[in-house]
Write a structure and sequence with these properties.
single chain; alpha+beta; Dodecin subunit-like; three-stranded antiparallel sheet; 1 helix
Length: about 70
């Protein structure tokens, strides 16, 4: 097997329902423009609060994909 290089980027997904759906949305969206996704790591969970209630769940994730260079 040949050696490979992977690039890691940070994304933030949002959902009004859950952190899980926020993270899934970020991965789903990344998959539309990045090829060969490998790993998605949740690095931070937070939420936006409005009028004392949770308005939005946010999941910050690092996503790695195979780097092909130029």
């Amino acid at each position: 097997m040949a050696n490979s290089v992977y690039k890691v980027i940070e994304l933030v997904g949002t959902s009004t329902e859950s952190w899980e759906k926020a993270a899934a949305k970020a991965v789903e969206q990344a998959g539309k423009s990045l090829r060969d996704l490998r790993i998605a790591e949740v690095v931070k969970l937070d939420m936006k609060v409005e009028d004392g209630k949770i308005a939005t769940y946010r999941a910050r994730i690092n996503v790695s994909f195979k780097y092909e260079g130029t």
